[in-house]
Structure formats: structure tokens, C-alpha cells
Amino acid sequence: MVRQWVRAAVTVVALTTGSAQAADPFIVVQSTTSTQNSGLFDAILPWFEAESGIDVRVVAVGTGQAIRNARNGDGDVLLVHAKPAEEAFVAEGWGVSRQDVMYNDFVIVGPKGDPAGIRGGTDAVAALTAIAQTGSVFVSRGDDSGTHKAELRQWGKTGVDVAQASGDWYRETGSGMGATLNVAAGMGAYALTDRATWLAFGNAHGLEVLVEGDPGLFNQYGVILVNPEKHPGVRAEAGQRFIDWLVGPDGQAAIAGYKLDGEQLFFPNAR
Amino acid sequence: MRDFSVMTDHPTLSVRGLSIVRDGKALLGVDYLDLDGPGPTIILGPNGAGKSLLLRCLHGLITPDRGTVTQGGQVLTDKVRAGQAMVFQRPVLLRRTVAGNLDFVLRRRGLSRSARRAECEELLAQGGLSDKARQSARSLSGGEAQRLAILRALACKPSVLFLDEPTSALDPQATQEIEQMVLRASDQGLRVVMVTHDIGQARRLARDVVVMHGGRVVEQGLAAQMFAAPQSGMTRRFLSGGLMV
Amino acid sequence: MQDFAQQFTIALGLIFTGDPELWAIVLLSLKVSVWAVFIASLIGMPLGAGLAVGRFPGRRALIVLINALMGLPPVVVGLLVYLMLSRSGPLGVLQLLYTPTAMIIAQVVLVTPIIAALTRQVVETLAVEYDEQLRSLGVSRLSSVPVLLWDGRLALMTALLAGFGRAIAEVGAVIIVGGNINHVTRVMTTTIALETSKGNLALALALGAVLIALAVSVTGAVSVLSLRGERQGVGHA
Known about the structure:
The complex is a heterotrimer.
Chain A: H1 2-17, E1 26-32, H2 33-37, H3 40-52, E2 55-61, H4 63-71, E3 77-80, H5 83-91, E4 95-111, H6 124-134, E5 138-140, H7 146-158, H8 162-165, E6 170-172, H9 177-187, E7 190-194, H10 195-200, E8 207-211, E9 218-226, H11 236-247, H12 249-257, E10 259-260, E11 263-264, E12 267-268
Helix pairs in contact in A: 6-7, 11-12
Chain B: E1 13-22, E2 25-35, E3 41-44, H1 51-59, E4 66-71, E5 74-75, H2 78-81, E6 84-87, H3 98-108, H4 113-126, H5 142-155, E7 160-164, H6 172-187, E8 191-196, H7 199-205, E9 208-213, E10 216-222, H8 223-228, H9 233-239
Parallel strand pairs in B: 3-8, 3-9, 6-7, 7-8
Antiparallel strand pairs in B: 1-2, 1-4, 4-5, 9-10
Chain C: H1 2-16, H2 20-53, H3 59-69, H4 74-85, H5 100-136, H6 144-151, H7 153-168, H8 172-178, H9 188-197, H10 201-234
Helix pairs in contact in C: 1-10, 2-5, 2-6, 2-7, 3-5, 4-5, 4-8, 5-6, 5-7, 5-8, 7-10, 9-10
């Protein structure tokens, strides 16, 4: 009997310890949910990994959290989309330097019924103003992410105080883009989303893109090497190699080549 | 009547000035008691007489509020207690096999594997449990379980064996088997002290008897004399089946 | 609904065709949780047994504390472990953040109180029953611990399973300290969270079904072993 127990235990341990531990070397990239949820990393990383032998481990969280994690030294490379915050990160010495990588754009999605009547518009400020005036439900990330910051910039231009409407027609999920779109779909509400996450999103029932093409909805991604002088553990060499690849011709081509249902999600614009 | 002519040297169990008080009520008050001779000694009395309490004091399971218990002149150190074993009213068997229960004790005695095996087989044969060695101890019948409890006590190789109403929950057949085991152990030189409220059992087993009531010893003597001519009124009343209140 | 059935079929197909990605995730889930429960039991069982048989000042308070810790919020545990293991944290030099080891640590913190509290209960009940018999046999309080643990083994199995259930189903802590990194720290629960956030609800649900099946089969396997043990005469708790 005892022997049986031991045998069972040994089997379980043997079964589970032999799992696939990725081999060194590797880097940790702190990035955003939009890059992961859109499938971009799954598409382009194998190219880099095959060429360099460096394993790229992506932690996908909101831009705000990604920056905080990187500030703690829990990442070698930061790839996010909130330019002012990124520049502050470098200015404070946490990052070495910032480079543009790619862009896409934000769109305003909403229910087919469109109670605020914003369909077909190209002016984000006007659309948001209409949503506020009709008291139509708008779902916000509310998580200090790049998308959330972009959304708040647009509200700032409308003069509407969304903090006042919080919990009323303005709902903050405090979650990632996908989770927020799930809420918007469930409530038949409006939301601001990056186009990449939207295109890859599988639960869009009843929602559609209503406003797009506003230059104010431009969404720039930047990449930063975490400063090894602040955190000696940073894998600077491998991290820099990844950045060089990303902004170089091979990485830029890989980004441009990623399409979903024939549609390009990110547009490389490294200089 | 059994033959008590074979007398071996037995340590005397002595009680002096023993008292246990709970909530201002004296549960046990035994000023002076010596248990000597080969036994079996039967402690007899109605429920609540303090028999089990006295037995636990003799075995060192309960420390009295006042008074001393000695065995062969020595207080109950761990070493002295190692020479004692006890069988409880309801057998507490470990959750292992029948043999495993015996092995647990034999192992504590530091015996080699082969010695343990040999002694285990011998004990099981003694208790008529050889064919149940690999069975769960918890699946034994009441009588079998109590027999195993006695075997386990014997496996301690004690010089004194205490039994606390070991047959009170058993049918006559099982009771008889237990009584035979107790007598055999006694005949082999083991000092037996057993508590019962069953007068018939006392008559069948006892060489000497201690009668208790209300936490006190009311009478002590050789069984033959006491059953023939009890000295105290309490004993007379108890032996004649009267209610003792 | 047709979409749902379709995705569900896809997920089931992945499972039954032995999709290596999915199986790697399943195995990692098992690995992390089995190790966590194993380590937690090494800590929790002696601790629980000590609380059951020990007599020392502050014992009652400690029991109340351990019972309360059974309800530790995973997110808080994840955050604390993150702060410890972060490069700027006290244990940062170990470079454990975003590794399966970090996830095991977080789960150990979550599971240990459960195992300790349940062990305490099992052993204390048994200790009351065995008290006089063990003292009669000259077994000291300390040396009674292994006896009580062994004799309570079937009930303790349930404690281990409760711990395993907590570990394998947990997402809040492991997603923070593991980072949900593909092929490295992605487990069943974080995969489900990810697929949900991608809006792939049917796939997420199908993965949930796999997770439930996994938990049920582990529990079932242990129960069968226990029952067989009982029938073979090792006793029951």
C-alpha cells in the first residue's frame, strides 16, 4: 500500500518536472495588452528568436503597470504606447533612450443602434461630446494604460468632466482592453479601443466601429531599454539586440507583414 | 477454585493519602491501599465508585491532587510506567492492520525486524487472530478488537497489567474469551489489576478484591473470604444486588 | 450560439488530438500546483500537528490566525510576493520573478494555511481519541505527532486535495508573479483569463472545462487510492 502511494507520487512529480523550461538566454519585455491580444508578438517574435537564439518573454499588462514594473527593474525592455509617460521614464533615468517603433490608431466603437448618433464621424471630440450630452453609456479602461491616457486626452478637449459622471453613464472597468470590450459588448455601450485589439477581438457582437480617422486618435508605440545603471540585473546586451532588430529593417518588415483577415494592424515607423 | 500455590515475586502497588477533588466534590479519597500478592486483583463497585479513576492513578495517567502512588517502593517514573500496560473499556486501536498495531509497540521496544515478526506471530496465535493479521484493526468485531488491545498490552512485556472494564460492551462468548486471556496472563506471572462492576466476573477471576463506593475503598480481602462473608454493610448490599446510593 | 459550439469543438479537438501547446500548459499547471502542495504540506502538516498537540502561550491566537489566513486574497499574496521578488525587492537578486518558481512560492503562501488549519483539526480530533492510549504506551507528546499524522492520513489527503484545488484554480497571484509569459509561465487559469480578454469566450470556457476535468480527475484518483487503501485494511479516518 505504502509502495503504491510512493509510486503514484513519483509518477506525478516525474510527469510534472519534465516540463518545457525555455532555455537561456532570454529577456523580459514589459508590454501592453494590445500588442499581445492582437497576436502581434506571437507573429513576429519567432523571427527574432530564430535569428538571435534569444527567448523573448512578454509580460502584457496596462502601459501604466508596465512602466511601474520596468521602473522596479522587472523587465529589460519596455514596449508601450504613451509617449509623454515614456519620455518621463527616460528623463528620470529609468530608461536609456526611447525610439519610435510603430503606430496604429484608436477607434470609437459602439452599439449598432448608436443612441448618440455618431456613426460615420471623423471627429473624436465631437463624438464624445455627443455621447456625454445624450448620457449614453461609455466604458473606459480606467487603468492608467496608454489607451486610457489617450481617451482622457480626448475627453480633456471636450470639456466634459468624466470623473463627475463616473458610475453614472461613464463606467471604468480598471481592466485590459479586451476585458473592457467584453463589458462594452455586454452593456451595448461605447468605448475607445486600439484598432489592433478590436480587429483581433472575438466577442464583438452588436458592436461596430463608429468613428475613425481623427488625427488625434493616432497611437504611437515606443521602445525603451531599461537602464542597467539603475538595475544591474538588466540584460542590456540582449535587450539592445532585440530593440535593434525591432527598429531595423527585419523587425519593421515583420510588423508590417502581420495581417489579420487581410488587414494590417500595426504600421512600422522607426527612424 | 484455581490453585494459587505458584507464587512469584510481585511488586507491591501502594497508595498513600490519595485524593482527587473536582468542583469541591471529592471524587477519590484513598488514604491507604496496598495491592500485593500475585493477583488477579479485582476492583469492584458500582458506577461512579471511583474505580477507573483509581486505576488511572495507579497507571500514572492521572496525577492526583494529593497523595502518592508507588510500585515496589518506587514512584511512577517513566521507567516504572514502562513496566505497566493498560487495556481500556473501549479499545483504542491505531488505524493500521492488526499486525501493525502490535508492530507499533514491538518497534518501540527496539526489537529487530525478525524478532518483531516472530513475537507478532506468537501473540496473534495467542489471541486467535492469526488469520486477521493483514486486516484493518478497525474492521474487527468488538471482541476481536479487545483481544487485540490485550495482545498489544502484552506486547509491551509489562510486569503489571491494568484492565478497565474490558468486557462491559461484549457478549458472553467474547467476554469468556477475554477472561481466559486474562487468566492465562495471570498464570504466566503477570500482575493483573482489573476493574469491573460485574460481580459474576469478579467471582470468576479474582484472587483478591477491592470494593469501592463513593470514591473510597470500603473493603479489601481475598476473594474466597469476601464472597463468603463480606465485612462491610455496603459490600453485603452490593453483593446481594441491592442499589447502592 | 453556433459560434460557441464551433469554438468548443475546436478546444475539445486541441485536447484530444494532444495539441502540444495546450498540453504544455496543462503540465505546467500541474507541476506548479503539485509542487506548491508538496512544499506547503511539508510546512503545514507539522505546523498543524504542532498546534494540535502543543501546549504553549499564544496557541489559541495562532490557531485563529491560521484559520483566518485560509481566506487570504490571492491578489494580495501575488502583490506581496511580487514586491519580495522584484529586482528592486529584497529577494530580487534571486531573479525568480516571472518564473514557475515564483508561482510556486505564491501558491505555497496561499495553500499552507489551508493545509495547516485542516491538519490541526484532523490531528486534534485524533489526539483526543488517542490521548490516554498513547500516554499508556509511553508515547510523549512530541513523538505522538508522526503517529497522529500517519493515522489521520486519509483525512489529511482531503486537506491536501483542498490545497490542490485552491492552487490549481487560482489566477490572481500567479498572473502577477508569473506574468503569464507564453511557454514559460502560462498556466490554465492565466490562459483562460487571456482568452477571455481576447473575447474568445467559448475557447476560454472550453479551457475551463479542461481545468475542471483536471481537478476532478486528480481528486478522483486520490480518492480511489484512498478507498483502495481502506479496503486493503489500512483503516479509515
